[in-house]
Amino acid sequence: MGKALIIGAGGVASVVVHKCCQNPDVFEEICIASRTKEKCDALAAKLDGGKTKIQTAKLDADNTDEVIALIKSFGPDVVINVALPYQDLTIMDACLATGVHYVDTANYEPPEVPKFEYKWQWAYRERFEKAGITALLGSGFDPGVTGVFCAYAQKHHFDEIHSIDIVDANAGDHGYPFATNFNPEINIREITANGRYWENGEWIETPPLSEKKTYDLPEIGPKNIYLLYHEELESLALNIKGLKKIRFWMTFSDNYLNHLKVLENVGMTSIEPIMFEGREIIPLHFLKAILPDPASLGPRTKGKTNIGCIIQGVKDGKPKTYYVYNVCVHEECYAEVGSQAISYTTGVPAMIGAMMILKGIWKKPGVYNIEEFDPDPFMEELNKQGLPWQEDFSPTLLD
Fold this sequence. Notes:
This is Saccharopine dehydrogenase C-terminal domain-containing protein. The protein has 399 residues and is α/β, with parallel strands linked by helices. The chain has helices spanning 11-21, 37-47, 64-74, 88-98, 119-122, 125-131, 145-156, 184-192, 232-239, 254-265, 283-290, 330-337, 341-358, 375-385, and strands at 2-7, 27-34, 53-58, 78-81, 101-104, 134-137, 160-170, 195-199, 202-206, 212-217, 221-228, 245-251, 274-276, 279-281, 304-315, 318-329, 366-369, 389-392.
């Protein structure tokens, strides 16, 4: 049916590649491209010989001209960006220059400022529309599936949605004293930033990790959850009609938070450059280099994740509550694709988003967040592709 250029070769990219190869009727040919071609070659070697044809390429995704050249030589129908979010705009520019559809899993943020906003990518709306191509933003899990969950709830279960609490819980154990389950730099920037939520048309800011609750999650049990800001709040606040309040919560162990606090106190989480032995370095970059690679955590990680949306609103004039969620097992993900569940829950939706575009189901010119499309075909594919969802119509609510 089509060709996909996959930019990135980390844990999430590995899942995307595996899942594309599981759907050769849709992904007839793929090219894996990264700054480190050896990683691409290693991925290709694992899966070569199947129905999906695989190529690899060396690519500096910070260089738009290089991305343009690769797109022209490979000729993809869609680019799946699972590189760093700092590279979103250079890749979008390349897609515009070549007339190719674009999919990513996280919003652009400037390297020097931890800002999680869609304004830079939303500014591309008119150009993508004029070019006749689609940019699908945030096709991971959160953002991604959580937006599809909300759109599905809006379509099938509510006349108006009044509040949404997104809860992301990882009860997995990798055995390390301290490690991050996805890119350490992005992970730590998120967690150390101020919390923020939307209520009655206003953004309310909170100190980092200052809002804490305990929630009893299906198949995982009671966990401490902390309020963070996450980019899907910005788009969902605009796209879900009648919404009055939306928050995002994530679980952290005491051990994780204690380690993070020490690192923060000694300056290791800073993105301000310092001089070290005659050269300038960024402490967070150095910390990333010495922490375990998230892609290496797969064989070590045991347990489950639970990510979902607790929703309140009105149907036929009566109050209604709804909780839709996915439970993912780390060991099962590793057995299938060689990755832990955090990479799996991001990589599978990235593949599904590209599939929606290649099949022509979600193909319309412009720049869109995932909840702006019909959720039904995506929800159907989640069940087929390894992320089955469950529903609860009388969930415990968060105050």
